[in-house]
Amino acid sequence: MALPRLPAAPAATYDGRMRLQDASDEWLAKRAARGDADAFEQLVLRYQDRLYTLALRVTLSEPDARDCVQEGLISAWRAIDRFRGDARFSTWIYRIVLRKAYDVLDRRKRTAEPMEEIVIASTDRPADDRLDLIAALATLEPEFRAAVVACDIIGMGMDEAAAALEVPAGTVKSRLSRARSRLAVELEAYRTP
Amino acid sequence: MTDNGHTDHEQLTRRLHEQGQAQAPSGLAGDVMRQVRAEPRQPQRSWLRPVALCATVAVLLVAGIAGLTRIGGSGQSSSAGSAAETHSAMGAVPGTSQNQASGAGGKYTPDALGRVAGVPADKLATLSPLPFCAAQAHTYALRVPVGRYAAVSRQLRTWAAATPTGATTYNVQIRRAPASARLALTCP
């Protein structure tokens, strides 16, 4: 099935008259590397929702997700001159935020923070089926959850997801398949009275 | 996979895509940009990296060439080197290291070990008959048997220090000779 993708960044290049909103990610990243904060702001506005979704669905906590995105974007600003453009900007920034999210999970594991509280702390729109979906997602292990979030929620291609998750594409594919099967079972269980 | 299963998965992925997305908190971008603008980055100097690379390559090349030149030069100029040492050790009693350096070839060769300037001709003639040297009329080489360097050198310097005004003088290069050899003045 061809999944409807989130609005992609325009591939246009800047010719001096084009607005920042129309510039490509890579062009904005180059400008940001030269210290142009406006160009970086454009990237922040363009990616904040997708990054927040990624962090929220992996960490299952709104405050943690917010911290991950904020810290990730600040890290990206500090390191953007090391972004060489041989990968897509989106992949690079997803990877940064995902690492922050995994750090949160590691920290949580070390401090034995109870999982239930984190799930309950979510304040998604109170549509029942949506809550079912979020609850089912929360039953998956983080690496399986990350694969589902990357491919099915954010709409990354298999290769981009592999690069963002820093695993081979085959691994993403198998994780995705298993995660979907388990989600289907979980959602069926929610439907059953 | 069955058609039914396939449809289930399609529905699931559609549902995930529609319901799984979240909106970033309203103040997030503002907070990030406040922090970003508070720590402005130094503009990236795109020319700096290639220039640094070129400079490094140039330094390495120069160092390599200099090293090769040095190796080649030291191989060719062992005798020239010892001559330079001789001039620098003018009037000094030779050390063992100089002897070892000169004998590095294995074959015994008389070696210049020191130099004393302004030795009166009449005193010099008491050591050995003065040979006729057309090319360097003011310099003689004195071959000194092993074990007598210090004494001969001291004697030459004493004579040189007490040279009367107007006396004919010669510069003397002291050269190493086997112990069995006789003290002899030769052309340098």
Description:
Chain A has helices at residues 25-33, 37-59, 62-79, 89-111, 115-120, 128-138, 142-154, 158-165, 169-191. Chain A has 193 residues and is an all-alpha fold. Chain A has two domains: 20-122, Rna Polymerase Sigma Factor, Chain: A; 124-193, Arc Repressor Mutant, subunit A, CATH 1.10.10.10. Mean pLDDT of chain A is 82; it is low at 116-126. Chain B has 188 residues and is α+β, with helices and mostly antiparallel strands. Chain B is 51% helix and 15% strand. Chain B is built from seven helices and four strands. Chain B has a four-stranded mixed sheet with strand order 1-3-2-4. The termini of chain B are far apart. The A-B interface holds A 1, 3-4, 6, 33-35, 37, 40-41, 44-45, 48-49, 51-53, 56-57, 62, 65-66, 69-70, 73-74, 77-78, 80-81, 124, 127, 129-130, 133-134, 137, 148-149, 152-155, 180, 183-184, 187 and B 8-10, 12-17, 19-25, 28-29, 31-33, 35-37, 39-44, 46.
- Could you give a short account of the major beta sheet of chain A? none
What is the helical fraction of chain B, as a range of percent?
A: 40-55%
Which stretches of chain B of 5+ consecutive residues score pLDDT under 50?
74-110
User: Quick one: biggest sheet of chain B?
Assistant: 4 strands, mixed
Total strands of chain A: the figure is 0
What's the architecture of the largest domain in chain A, going by CATH?
A: Orthogonal Bundle
If helices are DSSP runs of H or I spanning 4 or more residues, what is the number of helices of chain A?
9
N to C succession of SSEs of chain A: HHHHHHHHH
Kindly provide the radius of gyration of chain B, computed on alpha-carbon positions and rounded to a whole number of angstroms: 41 Å
Structural class of chain B, please? alpha+beta
